[in-house]
Amino acid sequence: MNAASPNTHNQQPQRVRASGPSACDLCDADRAFLKTKERPDYGGTPNPVKLVDLFAGGGGLTVGAAEAARRNGRGTEVVLAVENDENAADVYELNFQNVNLIRSDVESLFDGELGTSPTTSEARIAHDVGHVDLLVAGPPCQGHSDLNNHTRREDPRNALYLRAVRAAEVLNPTFVLVENVPAVRHDKGGVVAVSTQALKATGYSVQDHVLDLVKFGVPQRRRRHILLASSDERIDPAVILQMRAPRCEHDYRSVRWAIEDLVDQTSESGPDAASRPSPVNFKRMQWLIRQDKYNLPNNMRPKCHHGAHTYSSMYGRLKWDTPAQTITTGFGSMGQGRYVHPAKPRTITPHEAARLQTLPDFFDLDAHKGRGTWARVIGNAVPPLLGLHLIQPLLCALTHATPRPGVAGSGNVEGWPRLHDDRMHTA
User: Fold this and answer.
1) Partner residues linked to 136 by β-bridges
2) pTM, whole model, 2 decimals?
3) Strands, E, within 8-148: which ranges?
4) CA–CA distance, 384 with 217 (Å, rounded to integer)
5) pLDDT value at 217 more than 70
6) Span 262-302, pLDDT tens digits
7) DSSP assignment of 147-168, as one string?
8) Assigned CATH for 255-379
9) How far apart are CA 158 and CA 381, in angstroms?
10) Bridge partners of 76?
11) 141 flagged as catalytic
12) Residue 296: partners with Cβ closer than 8 Å, 6 or more residues away
C-alpha cells in the first residue's frame, strides 16, 4: 500500500485495459481505481457531495462514496466523520486530511432518544455540519455475528445501530446507508425494524436487503446487510438494493483479477510482508502448493479440525479463478481461514488483503502502524466497490446523469436499471 505522502492529490486514475476476452469498461475502471498509487483529487471539484461517515474505521465507505462522486464529476466534502479507535482514526485522517474528524463514541454525540427533539449536543453538531447529502455508517457487528453464540445478539453494542438512525433524524441527510452483517436481522431488540419505523416516521422511503458483494464487483464471497433510506422521491431504495453493477462479459471477479500483479511484490516488513508462519504451518503451506491442493487432509490438520466439520476452509489455499472467501482480521493466519496464497507457500500480505477488500493502492495504511492495526483496518473495512456501486446511481439520479464506468465523460455503461418505478417521477 502507499506509504508516500498523502498530499499528492492531483492525479486521476489512469485507465488500464484488461487483457483477454473478459475485458470490459467497468472492470477497466475498477481495476484502474484499485491500482492507482496517487490519491485522486476528491475535494477539488465544484458542487461537492456533503458526506457524514459514522463508525468510520479507516475510511472504506468514505473512499467508495468519494469515488462514486468523482465518477459523477463531483467532489466530496466530509463534513463529519466519527471513529473512537485511535489507530483507525489515525489511518482515516492520513487518507482524508482537513476533514471534520471527531475521535469519539457516536453515542456520546448523538445522545437523544429516537423521535425526540435534538439534545444540546445534537443541535450543536447539526448547526456545525449543515446540509448533508449522504450519511453512511458501519456500526460494530460483533454482537450480530454468526461467529458468536446466539446470546451475543443481545449484546449492548447492537444498539449502536440505532445511533446511526438517530444521527439521520438530527442531520436530515438526503440518503442514509447503514452496513452490517446479515445476522443483524435477528437481533433480539429488532434494531432493523425499529430503525425502519423511525426513518419512515421522519419521511424517508426505506428498504433493507442482504447483498452478495460479488454482484457489486468485490472479488470475495462476502454477504452484508444494507439498510438504505431516501428522502428524495425520485429514488426507490428497493430498486437500488435489487440491482448489481452493470454486467461485464464474464463471471464474478476473482482472486487473480485483484492480486495477480502482486505475486512477487513482497518485502521483509510493511504491508507487502506476509506474516511469519510456525514451522508446522509452513510445511502445510508447502504441501498445498507442491501437491496443487486447496484443502489439507485430516492427518495434516490440528486434531481439533479432524473428522466432519464445517470449517473446511481453515488451513486452505485460495484459488486464482474464484472469488476469495470473506476477508477478516485473521487473514494473516492459515488457521483462521482460506488465506494461503494461490501460488506461494505463504499467507496473503496486508496489501493483497486490502486489494481483495477493494481498498486501492493509494489508500495509506500508515507504515508506522503494526500488523494488528492493518488487520483491523482491512478486515473491518466496508469494501469501497460496494459503496461505489450503491452510491453512484443515487448521485446520478440527483443530477440526471448516466452512470459512468470511470472518469466522468468516459462513456456510458449499459445495463443499469431504472432508479424508480412507474409511480415515481423525475423532476
Assistant:
1) 53, 177
2) 0.86
3) 49-54, 76-82, 101-102, 134-137
4) 10
5) yes
6) 999 989 999 999 999 999 999 999 999 999 999 999 889 88
7) TS-GGGGG-GGGGHHHHHHHHH
8) 3.90.120.10
9) 18
10) 49
11) yes
12) 284, 287, 288, 315, 316
Residue extents of the structural domains in the chain: 30-250+382-399, 255-379
Q: How far apart are CA 312 and CA 320, in angstroms?
A: 18
* Phi and psi at residue 51, to the nearest 5°: -120, 140
* 3-state DSSP assignment of residue 137: strand
pLDDT tens digit string along 182-196? 999 998 889 999 999
17-27: average pLDDT:
55
| Catalytic choice (141, 248, 304, 396) | 141
With beta carbons less than 8 A apart as the criterion, state whether 6 and 39 touch: yes
Element holding 209 (H helix, E strand): strand 205-212
Q: Are 140 and 180 in contact (CB under 8 A)?
A: no
DSSP helix/strand/coil, 142: coil
Set of cell numbers at residue 319 = 484459488
Beta bridge partners of 347: 340
Pick the CATH number of 30-250+382-399 from 3.40.50.620, 3.40.190.10, 3.40.50.150, 3.30.420.40: 3.40.50.150
CA distance to 37, 45, 108, 196, 259, per residue, from 360 (Å): 8, 21, 32, 33, 11
209-212: list long-range contacts, CB under 8 Å, 24+ apart: 209/238, 209/241, 209/242, 210/182, 210/185, 211/241, 211/386
pLDDT (tens digit, 9 = 90+) per residue, 70-124?
999 999 999 999 999 999 999 999 999 889 999 999 999 999 999 999 999 999 9
